[in-house]
Write a structure and sequence with these properties.
The protein is of the alpha/beta class. The protein is built from twelve helices and six strands. It is globular and about 55 Å long.
Length: about 240
Protein backbone atom coordinates (compact mmCIF):
# COMPACT_ATOMS: atom_id res chain seq x y z
CA UNK A 1 0.00 0.00 0.00
CA UNK A 2 1.25 3.51 -0.84
CA UNK A 3 2.06 5.42 2.33
CA UNK A 4 1.01 9.05 2.50
CA UNK A 5 3.42 10.58 5.01
CA UNK A 6 1.06 13.32 6.17
CA UNK A 7 -1.73 10.80 6.65
CA UNK A 8 0.56 8.55 8.70
CA UNK A 9 1.73 11.39 10.91
CA UNK A 10 -1.78 12.65 11.54
CA UNK A 11 -2.97 9.14 12.38
CA UNK A 12 -0.02 8.52 14.69
CA UNK A 13 -0.45 11.74 16.64
CA UNK A 14 -3.50 14.02 16.53
CA UNK A 15 -2.85 17.37 14.82
CA UNK A 16 0.72 16.18 14.43
CA UNK A 17 1.89 18.85 12.06
CA UNK A 18 0.89 21.56 14.54
CA UNK A 19 2.17 19.79 17.66
CA UNK A 20 4.78 21.35 19.89
CA UNK A 21 7.59 19.29 21.33
CA UNK A 22 6.03 19.75 24.77
CA UNK A 23 2.93 17.93 23.51
CA UNK A 24 4.74 14.63 22.92
CA UNK A 25 3.05 12.03 25.14
CA UNK A 26 5.04 10.54 28.00
CA UNK A 27 5.89 6.98 28.89
CA UNK A 28 2.60 6.30 30.69
CA UNK A 29 0.76 7.01 27.45
CA UNK A 30 3.23 5.03 25.37
CA UNK A 31 2.91 2.00 27.66
CA UNK A 32 -0.87 1.96 27.28
CA UNK A 33 -1.76 -1.20 25.34
CA UNK A 34 1.90 -2.09 24.80
CA UNK A 35 2.05 -5.68 26.02
CA UNK A 36 4.96 -7.55 24.46
CA UNK A 37 7.95 -9.54 25.65
CA UNK A 38 11.44 -9.39 24.22
CA UNK A 39 13.58 -12.31 23.06
CA UNK A 40 14.69 -12.77 26.67
CA UNK A 41 11.03 -13.14 27.74
CA UNK A 42 11.12 -9.85 29.62
CA UNK A 43 8.00 -7.63 29.46
CA UNK A 44 8.81 -4.53 27.47
CA UNK A 45 8.01 -1.04 28.73
CA UNK A 46 9.06 2.55 28.16
CA UNK A 47 10.74 4.42 31.03
CA UNK A 48 11.86 8.05 31.26
CA UNK A 49 15.54 8.57 30.59
CA UNK A 50 16.25 10.84 33.54
CA UNK A 51 17.73 10.60 37.02
CA UNK A 52 15.13 7.97 37.93
CA UNK A 53 16.28 5.55 35.20
CA UNK A 54 16.98 2.11 36.64
CA UNK A 55 20.18 0.16 35.92
CA UNK A 56 22.26 3.23 35.02
CA UNK A 57 25.38 1.05 34.81
CA UNK A 58 23.94 -0.71 31.74
CA UNK A 59 23.79 0.65 28.23
CA UNK A 60 20.62 1.09 26.19
CA UNK A 61 20.55 -2.35 24.55
CA UNK A 62 21.52 -4.19 27.75
CA UNK A 63 18.64 -2.65 29.70
CA UNK A 64 16.18 -3.70 27.02
CA UNK A 65 17.44 -7.28 26.78
CA UNK A 66 17.92 -7.94 30.49
CA UNK A 67 14.99 -5.98 31.91
CA UNK A 68 12.69 -5.00 29.03
CA UNK A 69 13.33 -1.32 29.83
CA UNK A 70 13.30 1.00 26.80
CA UNK A 71 14.88 4.26 27.94
CA UNK A 72 12.93 7.14 26.39
CA UNK A 73 13.81 10.82 26.60
CA UNK A 74 10.85 13.04 27.39
CA UNK A 75 9.75 15.68 24.89
CA UNK A 76 12.03 14.24 22.25
CA UNK A 77 10.79 13.53 18.73
CA UNK A 78 13.51 10.99 17.97
CA UNK A 79 12.62 8.82 20.96
CA UNK A 80 8.90 9.26 20.38
CA UNK A 81 9.23 7.89 16.85
CA UNK A 82 11.39 5.07 18.18
CA UNK A 83 8.55 4.20 20.54
CA UNK A 84 6.08 4.26 17.66
CA UNK A 85 8.22 1.77 15.73
CA UNK A 86 8.47 -0.44 18.83
CA UNK A 87 4.69 -0.42 19.04
CA UNK A 88 4.35 -1.25 15.33
CA UNK A 89 7.21 -3.77 14.96
CA UNK A 90 7.75 -5.18 18.49
CA UNK A 91 9.06 -8.55 17.33
CA UNK A 92 11.50 -7.08 14.83
CA UNK A 93 12.80 -4.51 17.29
CA UNK A 94 13.22 -7.29 19.88
CA UNK A 95 15.17 -9.40 17.39
CA UNK A 96 17.46 -6.46 16.62
CA UNK A 97 17.99 -5.87 20.33
CA UNK A 98 18.85 -9.53 20.92
CA UNK A 99 21.41 -9.42 18.10
CA UNK A 100 22.97 -6.29 19.56
CA UNK A 101 23.21 -8.03 22.94
CA UNK A 102 24.85 -11.11 21.45
CA UNK A 103 27.31 -9.01 19.48
CA UNK A 104 28.27 -7.12 22.63
CA UNK A 105 28.98 -10.39 24.40
CA UNK A 106 31.18 -11.55 21.52
CA UNK A 107 33.01 -8.30 20.83
CA UNK A 108 36.53 -7.51 22.00
CA UNK A 109 36.75 -4.33 24.03
CA UNK A 110 34.52 -1.38 23.20
CA UNK A 111 34.85 -1.52 19.40
CA UNK A 112 31.46 -1.97 17.76
CA UNK A 113 31.15 -4.81 15.29
CA UNK A 114 30.16 -4.33 11.64
CA UNK A 115 27.00 -6.31 12.42
CA UNK A 116 25.97 -3.80 15.07
CA UNK A 117 26.67 -0.90 12.72
CA UNK A 118 24.47 -2.52 10.07
CA UNK A 119 21.66 -3.17 12.54
CA UNK A 120 21.82 0.45 13.67
CA UNK A 121 21.77 1.72 10.09
CA UNK A 122 18.55 -0.17 9.39
CA UNK A 123 17.05 0.73 12.78
CA UNK A 124 17.65 4.43 12.17
CA UNK A 125 17.26 4.82 8.39
CA UNK A 126 15.70 1.64 7.04
CA UNK A 127 12.71 1.13 4.78
CA UNK A 128 11.31 -2.10 3.40
CA UNK A 129 10.41 -2.20 -0.30
CA UNK A 130 8.30 -5.09 -1.58
CA UNK A 131 8.03 -5.46 -5.35
CA UNK A 132 8.82 -7.71 -8.29
CA UNK A 133 12.46 -8.49 -9.00
CA UNK A 134 12.58 -6.20 -12.04
CA UNK A 135 11.66 -3.22 -9.86
CA UNK A 136 14.09 -4.16 -7.12
CA UNK A 137 16.84 -4.43 -9.73
CA UNK A 138 16.18 -0.82 -10.73
CA UNK A 139 16.83 0.21 -7.12
CA UNK A 140 19.98 -1.90 -6.87
CA UNK A 141 21.30 -0.42 -10.12
CA UNK A 142 20.28 3.17 -9.30
CA UNK A 143 18.01 3.46 -12.35
CA UNK A 144 16.05 6.28 -10.81
CA UNK A 145 14.22 7.66 -13.85
CA UNK A 146 12.97 4.22 -14.81
CA UNK A 147 12.03 3.49 -11.21
CA UNK A 148 10.16 6.66 -10.35
CA UNK A 149 8.94 8.07 -13.67
CA UNK A 150 8.49 5.18 -16.07
CA UNK A 151 6.99 3.02 -13.31
CA UNK A 152 5.05 5.77 -11.53
CA UNK A 153 1.76 3.88 -11.83
CA UNK A 154 3.16 0.91 -9.91
CA UNK A 155 3.96 3.16 -6.95
CA UNK A 156 0.49 4.65 -6.97
CA UNK A 157 -1.53 1.45 -7.42
CA UNK A 158 0.23 -0.45 -4.64
CA UNK A 159 2.24 -2.83 -6.83
CA UNK A 160 5.32 -1.38 -5.17
CA UNK A 161 4.94 -1.28 -1.40
CA UNK A 162 7.15 0.65 0.98
CA UNK A 163 7.17 0.66 4.76
CA UNK A 164 9.31 2.99 6.83
CA UNK A 165 11.09 1.28 9.72
CA UNK A 166 13.85 3.69 10.70
CA UNK A 167 12.73 6.03 13.44
CA UNK A 168 15.25 8.72 12.43
CA UNK A 169 13.50 8.90 9.05
CA UNK A 170 10.17 9.78 10.68
CA UNK A 171 11.89 12.67 12.41
CA UNK A 172 13.26 13.83 9.05
CA UNK A 173 9.79 13.54 7.49
CA UNK A 174 8.80 16.52 9.63
CA UNK A 175 10.99 18.74 7.44
CA UNK A 176 11.75 16.83 4.20
CA UNK A 177 14.73 18.03 2.19
CA UNK A 178 16.27 17.18 -1.16
CA UNK A 179 18.92 14.65 -0.21
CA UNK A 180 16.64 12.64 2.08
CA UNK A 181 17.76 9.04 1.50
CA UNK A 182 16.81 5.75 3.13
CA UNK A 183 18.53 2.39 3.32
CA UNK A 184 16.16 -0.04 1.61
CA UNK A 185 15.75 -3.72 2.42
CA UNK A 186 14.40 -5.27 -0.78
CA UNK A 187 11.88 -8.11 -0.68
CA UNK A 188 10.52 -9.86 -3.77
CA UNK A 189 7.24 -10.90 -2.18
CA UNK A 190 4.55 -9.70 0.14
CA UNK A 191 5.46 -11.49 3.33
CA UNK A 192 2.08 -11.27 5.03
CA UNK A 193 2.74 -10.19 8.61
CA UNK A 194 5.87 -8.13 8.06
CA UNK A 195 6.81 -7.96 11.74
CA UNK A 196 6.68 -11.74 12.10
CA UNK A 197 8.64 -12.26 8.88
CA UNK A 198 11.43 -9.81 9.68
CA UNK A 199 11.84 -11.04 13.24
CA UNK A 200 11.97 -14.68 12.15
CA UNK A 201 14.58 -13.98 9.47
CA UNK A 202 16.67 -11.91 11.87
CA UNK A 203 16.47 -14.53 14.61
CA UNK A 204 17.64 -17.16 12.11
CA UNK A 205 20.51 -14.92 10.96
CA UNK A 206 19.03 -14.69 7.46
CA UNK A 207 18.85 -10.89 7.28
CA UNK A 208 21.23 -7.95 7.76
CA UNK A 209 24.46 -9.87 7.63
CA UNK A 210 26.04 -7.75 4.90
CA UNK A 211 25.74 -4.06 4.03
CA UNK A 212 25.02 -5.06 0.42
CA UNK A 213 21.56 -6.13 1.62
CA UNK A 214 20.65 -2.44 1.96
CA UNK A 215 20.32 -0.19 -1.07
CA UNK A 216 20.20 3.63 -0.94
CA UNK A 217 16.81 4.99 -1.96
CA UNK A 218 16.25 8.74 -2.59
CA UNK A 219 12.83 8.96 -0.97
CA UNK A 220 11.61 12.22 -2.48
CA UNK A 221 11.73 10.58 -5.90
CA UNK A 222 8.76 8.39 -4.95
CA UNK A 223 5.70 9.70 -6.82
CA UNK A 224 3.77 12.24 -4.74
CA UNK A 225 6.41 12.35 -1.99
CA UNK A 226 7.60 15.74 -3.23
CA UNK A 227 5.73 18.68 -4.73
CA UNK A 228 7.98 19.52 -7.68
CA UNK A 229 8.71 16.23 -9.39
CA UNK A 230 9.37 17.62 -12.85
CA UNK A 231 12.11 16.78 -15.36
CA UNK A 232 14.56 19.17 -13.72
CA UNK A 233 13.96 17.57 -10.33
CA UNK A 234 14.81 14.09 -11.55
CA UNK A 235 17.80 15.46 -13.48
CA UNK A 236 19.46 16.48 -10.22
CA UNK A 237 22.43 14.12 -10.32
CA UNK A 238 23.55 15.30 -6.89
CA UNK A 239 20.48 13.62 -5.43
CA UNK A 240 19.71 10.92 -8.00
CA UNK A 241 23.21 9.58 -8.30
Amino acid sequence: MFIDINEFLNDAFSAFSEANIEDIPGCDFLNNGFEHKNNNLQPLFFAPQDDSLAYPEMNYEERIFNHGLIATRQHNWHDFFNAMVWKTFPQTKSAINALHHQEMINQNGTLRSRKRDLLTLFDESGVIVMAKKAILDLIKNHKWYELFVENKALWLNGSIQIKTFGHALYEKYQSPYVGLTAQALLLEKNTGNLDEYLSRELNQQQLLNNKAELSPLPLLGIPQWHKNQNEDFYANSGYFR
